[in-house]
Amino acid sequence: MVLIISFVATKTTSSTERQAYVIHMDRTKLPPAASASASTQWYESLINSVAETPSQDHEEESSSPELLYAYNTVVSGFSAKLSASELQSLTKTNGFLTAIPDEMLILHTTHTPKFLGLELGKGLWSPSSLASDVIVGILDTGIWPEHPSFQDRGLPPLPPSRWKGQCETATKFSLSNCNNKLIGAMYFYKGYESVAGRINETVDYRSPRDSNGHGTHTASTAAGGLVGSANFLGLANGSAAGMKYTARIAAYKVCWALGCTNSDLLAAMEQAVKDGVDVLSLSLGGAPKPFYNDNVAIASFGAVQNGVFVSCSAGNSGPASSSVSNVAPWIMTVAASYTDRGFPTTLFLGNGAKFEGSSLYYGKSIKNLPIVYAGTAGGKKQGANYCINGSLDKKLVKGKIVVCDRGLNGRAEKGQIVKSARGAGMILVNGDRNGGEEMLADPHVLPATSLGASAGKELMNYIASSKAPTASIVFRGTTYGANAPVMAAFSSRGPSSIGREVIKPDITAPGVNILAAWPPVTAPTQLKTDKRRVLFNIISGTSMSCPHISGIAALLKSTHQNWSPAAIKSAMMTSAYDLDNTANPIADLGSSSSVSATAFAFGSGHVDPERASDPGLVYDVSTEDYLNYLCSLDYNATQMSAVLSGKSFECPEGSDFRPGDLNYPSFAVNFKRGGGGRNETVRFRRTVTNVGTDVCSYRVKVEEPVGVSVVVEPEVLEFGRLGEKLGYSVGFVAAAGGGDSVPAFGSVVWSAGKYSVRSPIAVTWEQQ
Known about the structure:
By secondary structure, the chain is of the alpha/beta class. The chain has 19 helices and 37 strands.
């Protein structure tokens, strides 16, 4: 058991600039005073022992760091803002493990419940399931407490007895803002202010109140209450509901104008676990790094050990390979995909050609207006093709449709710049490497549509070949029934660059054009010049798919209260589907060809909540399993201790446990390309737990990846009771001289009656 503390220096008397670090310490090697909860004096002594001596020119100034946070549940050590020499002195302290620079992380539903198969009064939305008290912790930009999505009508009068949290009073936030729905709200800012300076309260609230909108949106997606007649400016009309709409919400504000610091995030995770949350939802992330250097991974491991399910967004850096973040195997990593709901437009060109686009503009169509682009829109001004600020000539643009390339500035911002230049409309064109064929619907401030890269090329050819090009844009409102799901191009992809023996992301969920709650003081575009105000907004990102999984985890926790976080995760993964609503493989907008989506895009597939509630078998993972996995990565004692919050663990000598033996619900297999002229064999072990019917017999079916043969032993698993655990092994054999630079995919499926328990296989070939 170890303690973490955060410090920040408000003044420095050294010419050496201080930097914030998260320091991991081994409490077992610290004096008793350091392990006590009231250990201020000991830490002040530690601070003084490493503080730089003031220079003569600044003797009147204090160089002592300021204590920020103390943690003792999910992480261990302390965080501080230190100079290089102070950090060097600190490394000599008994119990020092490692120092990780504090970093700034970035933020990565009227219809989605129906799309996911959730129905009022049935299954996971039955009265018995919804009655179970589950607490979802949202770590984000805060919350707008007065929103109808957070009213507490129909909820029990008191939160669960295990709840230990509070409603923090601060700017524009009081105790009365919490209720039996929003049972806790806190804000964490000291790490952020140590990096970015004091929060500008004309822009944001120095309190749990949300001015950005992101946190309000994610909270309502996971656990917002039922709200009738929800819509965005008349679009997507219906009843809004979070996945577990009767769950309690605890909001922890950790993200501000420039992002979210690790030190604040760790403080919030620490507090949330102490408070008694069941689920933690983090729609944020940074660059992937080894788990012993990844503060989110370390804190999440501590949370999972305390029985808390942790879901994180995969990131919005797709379709680049190995762009996925939040890849620790104890985290549920969530990709983003489309539902069958769209907001289409039709673009008609003067030559008779027509193309489909997308837009959240809700108004009259524009017809037969002149088109201008680049030089015809900006003259000799630079950047007119991107419609950046100051690049457009009002005389050239007035009353015309302006074509804008994606990139350099925001999509909605381009529309505002066109409008300010008196343009009548905008066509936002993707490039091959900037959006591709993905057409996101944006809340434009003027008539505007997105256009895919291939259609954009035809548009450019028309503009170049016509002396007076014209266009019309028709806005078709809200439509349903499109082929779905489809993987979003922006959704970050595997294979994981850290721990390639685990497929990441784990799963996909709705993350495109998601309607959810929004602060009534914030414009839907977040632009200062946008004076529109809405109660619900439609936005996209893995930030939106993550809270869907968080809410579904809360539903499963309600139904299976004794399931571990790993069992809940397994249930969702093995019941996920990889075919769309036309029974064809799920498509991928990030693919340059017609190839369907793979496990590196969607993990195990698209979440199916009702099937996940009765999965038949689960792959459970104990703390010891995770530790053996870390040992198999050749982590040394210091690295192991960092992940374990300062606890020690001695890796067993002579163990034959390999990274691929982690009891994970998927198989990532890495072969050497060429194989040295002989067959190469990899064998993994798995254990499944029967959670379906008492007596049952499961038979295996294998879909082999191209170039790899797969042998499962035994081929039949005979269960005699619920809770029984049975093991099996899987052998993967690559033929001599085989191997390709292109990954190959398959699956292992255990079937018994109504149950079909599927685990994807992903094979990669590495250069020898």
